[in-house]
Amino acid sequence: MGFGNLLTADRGGVRTITVNRPDKLNALDRQTIGELQIAFDQARHDDAVRVVVLAGAGEKAFVAGADIAEFSSLSPMQAVAFAQAGQRMTCSIETLGKPVIARLGGYALGGGLELAMACHLRIASTRARIGQPEINLGLIPGFGGTQRLARLAGRAAALELCLLGTPIDAARALQLGVVNRVVEPDALDAEVATIADQLAAAAPQALAGILDTVLAAGDLGIGDGLAYEAKAFGLCFSTADAREGTAAFLERRKPAFKGS
Ligand code: COA
User: For ligand 1, is residue 106 a contact (CB within 6 Å)?
Assistant: First the structure.
């Protein structure tokens, strides 16, 4: 299906989804949130898609937040529904079962950072500016920011970013563990492509197992988490890819994973 506010492109097993409202710094209005929900549902059900890259159009912003012009007139109940729609969409990304890489070329603010935090890896350029500035609007984050930032970078970082509302640069975000890597702007696409290609060539069931078990670590105690991991480890042994991966090691050759 065609999207009004998204661009999609496939290269091998890598699907790139680009939020395409550069004149509004890719702000997330309801239409864009709905389209992202559909785009990620499509990626989930398409076996040819092994990894997703999520980007923002233009060099200025990944996503500069939820669309303030649109949400400023919401009633409290409409605002709850708006937050829930954003949370559903970000949860769909987090639980996609395939790795999602956020390409942060510029502003990742408010709902933009919340969107990026639902992704599994965040690769930033030195131009990225990252923050939860909702406090400056008299608001709090509503698309999972208070919960995911605290889980990702700890309570101290979550409180610093949400209470002060001041965006941080990419180096500080790396220091806090909010982003995984920082590269020069002209190296960003190559870095993202290298990581995406590596993930696209990996065994998809094993990737799904890692995504699922690491996510569960946020909710489970150590005993339950280890029991969950052992079962997920066992499940990998039902795949041809696990047989191929171990055989390739023993035969001193590169594995060719087929996704089965
Ligand atoms: N919602 C709606 N529109 C947004 C937006 C958002 N979150 N962020 C930027 N825009 C729009 C601006 O209104 C402007 O539109 P216009 O040209 O029709 O007036 C356009 O995008 C460009 O933004 P502008 O503010 O002119 O760019 P800038 O370079 O001067 O400043 C920012 C960039 C990111 C610092 C500034 O846009 C900003 O603070 N945005 C809001 C960030 C925020 O609070 N996000 C959390 C929302 S919950």
Answer: no
